[in-house]
Amino acid sequence: MAEIDDLRGAMSRLEARNRRLEGLYEAARELGAAADTETVLHSLLARTLRALDSRCGAILLRDPEDDKLWVKASLGGAAPIGEAAAVAMGEGIAGWIGRERQALRLEDTNADPRFAMRDQEGWITGPLLGAPLLSRDRLAGVIEIWGRHGEDGYAAEDLDILLALGGVLSLAIDNTHLFEESLASSYLDSMTGLYNHATFQNLLERELDRAERYARPLSLLLVDIDEFKPYNDRYGHPAGSKAIRTIAQIICAQSRASDIVSRYGGDQFAVLLPETDPKSALIFAEKIRVSVDAHYFPGSAGDLAEHLTISLGVAAYPEDADSHVSLLDMAEGALFASKFAGKNRVCSAQDI
């Protein structure tokens, strides 16, 4: 009789486990098909906590550049998200799981000798489950669950559930990364990471509509690299591409968070300056010109560093134009005036 009861209990636990897994699988498929990474991580983490009757959890994703694990999702007042939430590979609980690519089931994290001296992940206490997130034999990250309701710790079958979920979660992360990369490629320039020409045109219309609606100023800068073709011909396309990226970075470094920097053409950039009058736009343009003028670009091996400059044209709404087409025309006219006047200078629509 006792054996029958044990069998029934085991079957009941197995059925409950399968129901929990089926729900998580379905959630992962739905989320991975349409949502952004942050939404996927938080939703699956919340479902995992419910399935494992836990209060706290965190998902850390691996950054291949610094080989650290960064907290990207956290629930239950657990791990902080941001620059302070990085775990080095091999350190702390997540770092050990990531390095060894092994799952963990601990009765007391603080009593485990592997983590007795850890100074990271101090937010974790008590029983814990942790598993690596692997995709095509590549470590994508680590998931940690703790804060089990009640006094009991985690059972072996709980770790099985977390391991099963890890594969689904890894696939969902991959799917959302692919979706985000595909989406980004439609509106970003692949070389510089700036907005591309088509996106700039849409943003120009949007910002001008907003400026008209609220009677606010808007300025536009067009930037052209001087003598770029000779430099590109002399040192080759890789050096030319690097110079374009460097100038894009210089422009972005001078820009505000509200400014919109785009790659306008091969060696041209466009910068939209909301809430900026002509005088302020000219000051900003001059800062960019001086910064590029002070920068030296590498030549070929054994050569001295090369000097590149830029020419800029500035136009503003409502002083110089009353539509996005005329604003662009006036900025192009000002840019041509800078080129005609000797390059390496800033001209405004008022100079035409």
Describe the structure.
With 352 residues, the protein is an alpha+beta fold. It folds into two domains: 2-186, GAF domain (Beta-Lactamase), CATH 3.30.450.40; 197-351, Alpha-Beta Plaits. Helices cover 47% and strands 22% of the residues. It has helices at residues 2-34, 37-51, 92-100, 156-187, 197-214, 228-235, 237-254, 278-293, 324-340, and strands at residues 54-63, 68-75, 86-88, 104-106, 128-135, 138-148, 218-225, 260-263, 268-274, 296-297, 306-307, 310-317, 346-348. It has a six-stranded antiparallel beta sheet with strand order 3-2-1-6-5-4, with helices on both faces. It has a five-stranded mixed beta sheet with strand order 8-9-7-12-13, with helices on both faces. Helix 2 (37-51) runs antiparallel to helix 4 (156-187) and helix 7 packs across helix 8.
Fourth-tier CATH superfamily name of the largest domain: GAF domain
Radius of gyration (Å): 28 Å
Fraction in helix:
40-55%
- H/E topology pattern: HHEEEHEEEHHEHHEEHEEEHE
Count of extended strands? 13
Architecture of the largest domain in CATH? 2-Layer Sandwich
CATH topology of the largest domain: Beta-Lactamase
N/C terminus separation: 99 Å
User: What is the C-level CATH assignment of the largest domain?
Assistant: Alpha Beta
What best-fitting shape do the alpha-carbon axes yield? elongated
Please count the helical segments: 9
Strand content: 15-25%
